[in-house]
């Protein structure tokens, strides 16, 4: 069976044809984005393509407005080279995150900069209401960023839940039952009238980290996504690894069934806070009023740290990544405590412990799933 991947959106209206690029064009844009090369000469040196081919590719990207010509750079003998830069405003994308308590969104430009964000509470859970809220948020984001529909390369959508193995159908929590076992990408494409890529929230957050966070320095990592549930994503050599069915990174599955009720979720923390007399309507409310000194945090840590130690040890043994990133909706003070508390199972041999991945806190500032979802169309169309 072929692995599920991001290569094809739900649909492609005629006006997005201008965003179609060759593999070599995407490679050049990626090199410029990462700062691996800033001139034609540097790109030629870093690839197997001829100088003539690079010149043709660069000229095409400049003509299409994706690259701009900057100042001249002196590089050894001969004529100074012209510096190449991404044209930030040449293309944009929107990311939506459908959660059990809200829908959040972000607009991202070609340089990966977030130029607008919005959030709306989810109060009605029938399909029409959820899709209608997505459309309202989409329109609000367009207005906030000063864009029109044709400026968008596409829309990425992250939703809580595992894939069923049938197209892009997701099996979400009960609160999102209206989105279960349906072709969600096509429903959203019809609603938004734009190409849509759908994935689970852990995968899109990992993609966002690859594009705009830890992934700029570490190309192979595992991403732990903390929210109402617990999951994540896997990035190998800068590319999301979805697995055969799209469920790579469902790290809660490492834990046995009798530990699922106390798996490391923010919903568990909310429940523990309520038992101690501090009630929050939902996870968003808990995060907004987060108190790092709440006594429930110590109880939560005592329950989840052993499980997270088992998870990161399994990740290290199976994937051997450079780093493991803690992210999702995890408040920064809580993430910092987890980094200090989590340990790896490793038995020394000859006094040596095998190399272990570093634990890092996400470097993506804001809603990880919405920002990551916005990164998906850009990654696929321009940097894939």
From TrEMBL:
<dbReference type="Pfam" id="PF00480">
    <property type="entry name" value="ROK"/>
</dbReference>
<dbReference type="InterPro" id="IPR036388">
    <property type="entry name" value="WH-like_DNA-bd_sf"/>
</dbReference>
<dbReference type="GO" id="GO:0019262">
    <property type="term" value="P:N-acetylneuraminate catabolic process"/>
</dbReference>
<dbReference type="InterPro" id="IPR043129">
    <property type="entry name" value="ATPase_NBD"/>
</dbReference>
<dbReference type="GO" id="GO:0009384">
    <property type="term" value="F:N-acylmannosamine kinase activity"/>
</dbReference>
<protein>
    <submittedName>
        <fullName>ROK family protein</fullName>
    </submittedName>
</protein>
<dbReference type="InterPro" id="IPR036390">
    <property type="entry name" value="WH_DNA-bd_sf"/>
</dbReference>
<dbReference type="InterPro" id="IPR000600">
    <property type="entry name" value="ROK"/>
</dbReference>
């Amino acid at each position: 069976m072929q692995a599920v991947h991001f290569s094809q959106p739900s649909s492609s209206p005629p006006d997005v044809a201008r965003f179609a690029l060759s593999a070599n064009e995407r490679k050049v844009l990626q090199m410029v984005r990462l700062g691996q090369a800033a001139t034609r000469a540097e790109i030629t040196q870093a690839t197997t393509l001829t100088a003539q081919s690079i010149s043709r590719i660069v000229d095409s990207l400049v003509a299409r407005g994706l690259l701009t010509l900057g100042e001249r750079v002196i590089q050894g003998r001969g004529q100074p080279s012209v510096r190449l830069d991404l044209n930030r405003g040449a293309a944009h994308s929107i990311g939506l995150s459908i959660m059990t308590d809200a829908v959040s969104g972000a607009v991202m430009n070609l340089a990966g900069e977030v130029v607008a964000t919005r959030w709306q509470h989810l109060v009605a859970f029938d399909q029409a209401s959820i899709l209608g809220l997505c459309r309202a948020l989409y329109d609000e984001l367009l207005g906030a960023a000063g864009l029109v529909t044709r400026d968008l390369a596409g829309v990425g959508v992250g939703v809580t839940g595992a894939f069923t193995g049938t197209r892009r159908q997701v099996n979400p929590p009960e609160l999102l039952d209206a989105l279960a076992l349906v072709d969600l990408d096509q429903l959203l494409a019809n609603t938004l009238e734009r190409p849509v890529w759908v994935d689970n929230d852990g995968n899109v957050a990992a993609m966002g980290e690859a594009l705009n966070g830890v992934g700029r320095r570490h190309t192979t990592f595992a991403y732990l996504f903390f929210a109402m549930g617990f999951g994540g994503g896997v990035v190998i050599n800068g590319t999301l690894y979805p697995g055969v069915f799209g469920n790579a990174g469902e790290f809660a599955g490492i834990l046995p069934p009798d530990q699922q009720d106390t798996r490391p979720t923010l919903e568990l923390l909310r429940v523990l806070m309520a038992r101690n007399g501090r009630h929050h309507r939902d996870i968003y409310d808990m995060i907004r009023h987060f108190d790092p000194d709440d006594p429930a945090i110590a109880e939560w840590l005592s329950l989840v740290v052993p499980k997270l130690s088992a998870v990161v040890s399994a990740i290290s043994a199976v994937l051997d990544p450079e780093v493991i990133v803690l992210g999702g909706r995890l408040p920064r003070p809580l993430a910092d405590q987890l980094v200090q508390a989590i340990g790896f199972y490793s038995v020394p041999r000859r006094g040596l412990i095998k190399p272990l991945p570093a634990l890092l806190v996400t470097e993506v500032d804001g809603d990880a799933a919405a920002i990551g979802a916005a990164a998906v169309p850009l990654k696929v169309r321009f940097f894939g």
